[in-house]
Amino acid sequence: MNRVLLLLALLTVAGCVTQLTPEGSTVRIASDTDECESIGTVSAANSSGLSTADEAEGALNGLRNKAAAMGANAVRIINMDSDIEATTALAEALVCDFE
Questions:
Q1: CB 31 within 8 A of CB 67
Q2: What are the residue ranges spanned by the domains of the chain?
Q3: Which member of 6, 7, 57, 66 has the greatest number of CB atoms within 10 A?
């Protein structure tokens, strides 16, 4: 019984990481933005409580999801910060010609 409760608790906490949507999965993280047009900025935060790496992944997923909703196909990370409570990220949403 205790194992079942522990498993349910872990699954509940793991569900707190922002999941990447199908649209968000098409958004690239770009470093070379010469062939890109900025369409705005996006921000996201994640506080899964699991680890800084999980929180960072959730914040990046949030950025990509929000950028996709704006019509972007890439993001350029402007700032990413982690503290004991959460990881926050800020990025420029871009439309890039990757061909």
A1: no
A2: 2-96
A3: 66
Contact 42, 80 (CB under 8 A): no
Determine the CATH number of domain 2-96. 3.30.110.70
Q: Would you state the torsion angle of the CA atoms of residues 69, 77, 12, 21, taken in this order, to the nearest 10 degrees?
A: 30
Q: Where are the beta strands (DSSP E) in 1-99?
A: 28-29, 36-46, 74-82, 87-96
The predicted-structure confidence for 11-27, as pLDDT tens digits, reads as follows 444 457 899 999 999 99
What Å distances lie between residue 42 and 10, 39, 49, 89, CA to CA? 30, 10, 22, 8
